[in-house]
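Quick one:
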Amino acid sequence: MQDVFVNIAWALVFTVVGGTVGVLLILLATLFIPKILARLTPNMNEDKEIARGNQAVAEYFGRIVAATIIGISIVIAAAIFAGVMAALY
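Output:
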């Protein structure tokens, strides 16, 4: 019976650590993805275009950042799930 509680404790540790790392990765992604996108489009200043009201640039920029965050979130969720499953077996 004690093994069950130890496994549940490890699953909790993996979940908390994985969630914390996940949040940090998403925060880092939101900082670096706009900079990377700006380097990929050197002839266009996205900030100026968005401030001027260019809807196409704003939607493109938002979709790229959102897709990156969703992709990172899926990878983090899979890692947390794998850690929990490893702890419970």
